[in-house]
Every structure is written in C-alpha cells, then in structure tokens.
Amino acid sequence: MESIDLATMTIRTANEVIRGHGAAHQDVQIFNPDAKHYLCVGLTNPIRVRIRGSAGYFCGGLTDGPRIEVQNNVSWGVGDNMLAGSIVVGGNAGAIAGEAMRGGEIVIKGNMGSRAGQVMKKGTLCCAGDSSFMAGYMMYGGRMIILGDSGEKVGEDMAGGAIFVGGRVTSLGSDARLEAPTEEELEEIRTFLARHGLPMPDRFKKIVCAGGQLTYPTPEPRLRSLPHPRFTGSRADYWNEKVVEDNRVKAHIGRYRIRGYGAARPVPHLTDLAFRKDLSGAGTDPAAIAGVHLRTFIGGKHGARALDLSMPVMIAPMSYGALSGRMKRALGIASRLSGISENTGEGGMYAYERAEARQLIAQCLSGRFGWNIHDMKRADGLELYISQGAKPGLGGQLMASKLTPEIAAMRGIPAGMDLRSPSRHPDVLGGDDLIMKIEELREAVGWRLPVSLKLGAGRTRDDIKIALKDGLDFVELDGLQGGTGAAGNEVAEYVGIPTLAALMEALEGLEEIDAKGQLPIVLMGGIQNGVDAAKALALGADAVGLGTAMLIAAGCIACMQCSVGNCVAGLATQKADHVARFDIERRALSMHRYLESIRRQLAAITAALGYDDVRGLNRNDLVALTPEAAAMTRLPYEPSAGQGR
Amino acid sequence: MCAIAGLLFKKARPAHFPMTTGSALTEILDATLHRGPDSAGWALYRPPLEGELRMRFFIDANGDAQKEIAAVHTALEAQGATVLDGEVLGCTYGVRVGFAGDVLALTRAIERRVRLVSIGASLDIIKDVGQPYALAPRYAIHEFDGGHGIAHIRLATESGVHPDTAHPFWACGFADVATVHNGQLTNYWIMRRRLERRGMVFQTENDTELIAVYLAYRMSRGADLEEALRTSLEELDGTYSYLVATRDAIGYAKDKLAAKPMVKYEDEDLIAISSEEVGLNRLFPGRALATSEPAPLTYGLWRRAA
C-alpha cells in the first residue's frame, strides 16, 4: 500500500498522485488528512484508499469504483455523484451525504447531516446513527437506510427509491408516505448490514413517494399554432387571440400554463441600438472582410485549456430531452463545421452529439441528471448552471410526454413523471459553497477544463462579482429573451431581466470592483443575427450564444409548444414519427450556413467600422435609437441613426 | 458568504496549546480562506479595564486622519469621557477613556459624529479589507492571548468591500458584545425598519450588523443574551450560523435550514468553532478530532469558568 502525507503535499498534487496509483491498481493510505477538501475526487479506479483521520468536503465525490475508508468524520457532500464503489465513514458526515449518488454504497457509522441523499438516483446510503432533517430530499431512486432516528421531513418531495428508518420518524416530508417493507427488502438490508458489521434493528419503517405531485392532474389541451404578429408587437390587439386562448386553457386546467420558446413581450433590445457610423457600405470589400480576425479563445483564465472558437459565438445550452436526439446531433455537426462550441444543456451528454461536436461544454444542473465523471472527462468545458434568462430562479421542466424511457435512464430518474428539476443545487447555497463546488469540478478533471457559470439575469450586478471572486473562467449571461423548452408562461414573459439591461449590470458590476474585462461574458437571450452579435460585442460582451436562432435555422415554426412534445419539425419532440422527419445532415448544413452568415456579418461590420479584429468593437461605435434603450445602456440617444441598423 | 471562527479557553490557555489565541483564530480563518477572500476581522477580549473603556474608531487612511482623530476627542470630551491614551492602528484609532457613565447614552450621543467600531471594557474589534495572514501582522493579532475571541472572513455579495462592512460587528451601544455571521437574512429590511422605529441606529447595510443591533435591542429591553439568542431564531428569517461574544462567553444560533455550516470541537480546556472541520484541524494538525455540528434551530452559550 502506497502512502501519501497531506502535511507535506497539496490536495491538487495528492489527487494526481492518487489517480496515478489508481491507474497502476495500487492501494493508497493518506496520512494527516486534517479534514481537507476534495480528497479522491474524480478517481475512477477500483483501488482501496484509507484516510487516516477526517476528510473535508466532497470526499470521494465524482468517483467510479474506489473503495474509500475514512477513519473519522467527513464534511459536506461525501460521495457526491459517485457511480460505483464504496465509502465507509467511521465518524459523522456533514450535510448532503451521498448527494446525487448514482450507484455504489456509502456507510456512515456515526450521524449524518441534513438533506442526505438529496437528488440521489441509485445505490445505497446507510447511516448507523441519526440523520438530520430532509433525508432523501428530492431523491429519484436508490435506497437509504437509517438505523437511528430520522429528522424532520424525511423523504421531502421524493420521486422514487425508498428510505428505511430503524428508529423514530420525526415527520414525513411532502408527498412521502409510509408503507410496510417486504420480507425480501428486509433480507437484503440484513445482508447489507451484516456485511458492514452493523446491527439489524427490530423493525423498519419504509418511506416512499406518495405520487401525488409527480404529474399535473389535467393535461393542457393541444392547440393550433398562432403566428406571432397576431399577438405580439404594437399592432396586436389588447385582447388578442393568444390572450383569449390563454384564458380558456386556464379555465380548463385551473393552473399556470407551461410553454416553450422565448418571451413574446417586446422589451428594449439590441435592435434598438445602431452603429454611429453609416454602414451602408459594409460588406462591399471582400478583402477587408477576409482579413478580419474573429478567432476567440475563452476560458483559459485560470490555466485550463481554453475553448478555441473560430468566431465569438457559441451554441447555447439546450438539452437532449427538450430537443430530439437527431437535433442534438445536427447541432453537434453544425458547431463543428463552423468551428464553435456546443453545449449539452441539462440531462447529460448524448453520445452522438459528443461524437459530432469538436468542442462540447458539459452542463451541470441542480438535479444532476446524467451528470457523471466520465462525461466530464470527455467534455471540453464544464458549466455550472445557476439559472436561465427565461426563468431565473426556477428549475427546468420536462413533461412526461417527452421523458422517454431512454432519456429517463440517461438522467437516472423514473420515466413517465412530469419532471420538475430542483430550483437550486444541493451543494450551492451561496457564494462560499459555489467556490467549493467549482474547485471540486476542477479537481475532478485535474484543472484541465475551463469552468463557466450559466447565469440567468436576476441580481446580475451582485452575481457577476461573486462569479469573478469564485474563480470562474467565464460567464454565460442569459437575458429575459432567452428561450426555454418549458416554463410557466408568465414566468417566461415577466420574471427575467432584458438581455440588454443584464449585460449593462454585469459590466458595471465588474467596473465597481475594478475588474473591468477580467471575466469574459458570453451574452445570450434573443440574439438574432450577426448585427445583434456585433452590437453585443461592442457593448462589452466577449462572445454571444445562440439558442432560439439555431432552432429556427433548423426548421422551428415558432409555435411555442416545445413543452408538449408534438414538434412537427422533429426538433423539440421525442415522438419517433416526428423525429424521423428531421433530416440530420440537411438541418445541420442549414444551421452551419446560418452561422456562416453571422460570421460574414460580424466581419463586415468590424471592417466597415475600421477594425481588423472583432475585439476592436467598442461602446463608442454605438448609439441608441429609443429613449428606453438609451436609458438602459447609457448610450447617446440618436433616433436618426437608423442606417446602421 | 463567509467563514466564522471562535475560540474560548474554559480557564487559562493551557501551556501545551501551541499558539496564542490571536494566532489560533487567524489560523482557523486561513484554513477556510476560500470562503471569504475580501475582508477579515477579529473581536478580541483583552483584560478588562476598571472604570475605563476601550474604544475603537475608523479613520480614513487616505483622508485627513488628524481631523477625524480630533473629532473623536471632541465628541468624547463633550460627553465627559477622558481620553487617557490613543493610538492609530491601520485604518483605526484606538483609545482608552476614563468614563463612568452609561455606554448606551454615550453611543447615542456620538455615533453620528464619529465612525465607531467597538466599545468595551474588554472588547476590541479589529477589521479591515484584506486576508487574515496579511492583516494579522499589521494589527499585531498574534500578540493577543486572551481567554476568548471570535473572528470572520468575508466574501462580499451584496454590500461593498470596505472596512466598515467587515465583521465582527459590535452590538452598538452595548459594551463588549460582538457578532460574526455566515449566511444571509431575508427579512433584513423589515427588521431594520422595525428596529429603527424603536430608535436603533445602523451604520451599514450589512445584515450582520442587524444581528448585532437586534441582540443589543433585546438586551436593552431587559432580555439576557440567551433569551435574545432564542428569540432571534424566531424573528430573524434567512439562513445563518452566527456567533456572539461577550466579556466572558461565546454564544451561537443556527437557523432551521442549517445551510450554513458550523463545526465545534470541545475538550476539557477549550471550545473551538469553525465553518469547516479543516479550520479546527489547523489547531490540532494530524489529529482525528471528535467534532460535532450544532443542530438546526438551536442556540447556546459557552461561558468561561469564573
């Protein structure tokens, strides 16, 4: 057995050494751990690791296979997202033990903190002592065994799995109920406990999901698609067809409505800005356009391998689930052909998309659906999703009609439920937790990949400062106009902050702490073309993200019913006959051509403004066409500068 | 968005404990530095003075310090307090005054004229922008070797990064009471308006100050500290773990969501508190400590032996 002394070695080095021993199938013992964080994070070999003392946060997190023994205590998040293997803790565990587990077993000989097993999906979490409140909060599967007493609200909002409590159940959580354990289950528990030398209690209470909240009671009726001009813009009637439709549907279902797509409400946007200079001659000089430098590196700020974009454009995160597998594949191809990055969105990495995209960002969401160490290692960037512009502060939704068995399996959750993702991460409840989560992700991939934050515009001025201090490599900032696969209608229209205002807050927030230009911002939320992109860059964004625009380029008819799952274009559906209509190659090429139109527009505008590098674009190139946009951006109000639009 | 630290020796510091109280607090902070890189502070309980008070004020290092020092002297003398000595320390000015009157009345009289940091027979709050290892030598923290103290590092989220938004916060008007806090209060403005209507004064928009002012208010209405801690759990909404120190004790309160960690180590000699166990291990390297986490929705008070 090899030895590591943490009194003389940093965690970062130690984890590299442990992984090295793992590759050589060498067992390891760790001395002087002194409750340090991130021990064994990202380890994927079935070696034995003995920790001679206490471990800190995320011990054995993001692992697959190792057998870890901790002599004393562990802090928050032991075994976070582990896939297989075992962790045995001799003492107590802090909060969120076994959060987002996807297999293997964790045994805690002492007590465990609150929210143990939050969003766990598989495997066994066993606590020989007492558990604090909300054990099994939002758990989707797996087995929890608590030999002592369980705290309040055990099984709160659980959707699957079972919790066995040997002691007292202080109170049941919302949508949880008691049922009698079967003989078979008890026998399995007996075997499990005997294997770990733990006593079998006389009796067990079993807690499962009552199922009352898994699906919406009355489904929304199917509707005709209404063309946008009939309900949005200045010419739409006050009581237009959409308003009437909305009223009638609510009168039928008795709750808020869920829809896809972005906000239809007009708010000041990049189209309300113009270039100061007359650009009517833009694009006439092919040599000047060809000479414009567009290549953008983003994410290398802390030594990771930066994303290498052929132009400052990314494809916005959109999930396999919200979108069909064929559409995800086409996005991968289009991103590769245009030399930009693609993003997994929620729900894990789709293998075909990984194969097609040259640069793929893996997104980690609150429910940790599909999140695992192997896909992290296959990614080109990691992204922690805090929120999105269309529904800041709320979790994602995926209606049962789109949650196929394949997607449910990939996400590790029961099929057939109306999936509502948690609105917050189990382990990120503030800026201090965020930095620890980011470091865990970095440790897991050996600090090799950029780590970004997806921020829906809310308290952007504060959030951007936290993102900078927490050492993120870049931020994807998403405004109100950002699209979504499913959100409450009123949420999508009224909760967010316009993209333009969000960017200004972010830029000013950084300036307030003398950090102008120190945190790259990828702006998304209603970017429609290369002119919008150029304006966003001139205002201060470092790149833009395209979501809805990509869908339209791939054939989206803008019916706003992505959530229903009947997408006739085969993009936002999982129905086999609809998906079959989607021609991957043809649509990928459409999206690629659209991206190339953006490249050309960006280059033409840059050249016409007199720069040979897209990074030359700046605020002085812009004016505002409306008083609202002027107020929002503090640009000069020049309503007559229309030529530059 | 921070880390808290506390250390209390039940009797005198045992000879085998390898560092001073000030150094120990600094070590706990440094071990958890990732939680709060913006500012740091210590509430140190020095030997109590008889019939005298320790007072500390902020002075503007870039501005006219002499003018501010003069203002401190004028304000104190107008209230019948005799300045016995004074010393500039970093961005603060510390004085020892002869004063036999009511501290609350003195505070009310001067708090709008000068920038008070702390008042106490024993308490001395030192806080500044920067990180503990850099600040400690500047403020001679390692020289402090008293029986107890609390400390804090801050990651600023809402209010700005200035010395006066650093923790600890003095319970304005109440000698020797100081607070540090990790978390956020969600009913800050409701509680602030309520307390302001009752005459309490706020110097910043930092929610920790509200905890200090709240405790001060409750005690001004006759509650003892334990009672004030108890009612704070009912009245302060949000998620927090906070510590409060008095001349001879350290108390804590932890909200029902318990999303902000706090780990305690206790043996026959001492009680040490950190946001993470890794902070406690700095005091006892290489040892597997028997630690515990105070339960959600609890409060408590650890006193020094008389």
From TrEMBL, chain A:
MF-aspect GO terms: glutamate synthase activity
One Gene Ontology term from the biological process aspect of the record: glutamate biosynthetic process
Source superkingdom: Bacteria
Pfam families per record: Glu_synthase (PF01645), GXGXG (PF01493)
Domain (Glutamate synthase): residue spans on this chain: 305-611
InterPro entries: Aldolase_TIM, Glu_synth_asu_C, Glu_synth_asu_C_sf, Glu_synthdom
Domain Glutamate synthase alpha subunit C-terminal: 35-171
Family: Belongs to the glutamate synthase family.
Protein name as catalogued: Glutamate synthase-related protein
UniProtKB/TrEMBL annotation, chain B:
Gene3D superfamilies given in the database record: Glutamine Phosphoribosylpyrophosphate, subunit 1, domain 1
GO-annotated molecular function: transferase activity
PROSITE patterns per UniProt: GATASE_TYPE_2 (PS51278)
Keyword Transferase annotated: yes
Domain Glutamine amidotransferase type-2: 2-306
Record has Transferase as a keyword: yes
Classification via InterPro entries: GATase_2_dom (IPR017932), Ntn_hydrolases_N (IPR029055)
Keywords: Glutamine amidotransferase, Transferase
UniProt protein name: Amidophosphoribosyltransferase
Highest classification ranks of the organism: Bacteria, Pseudomonadati, Thermodesulfobacteriota, Desulfobacteria, Desulfobacterales
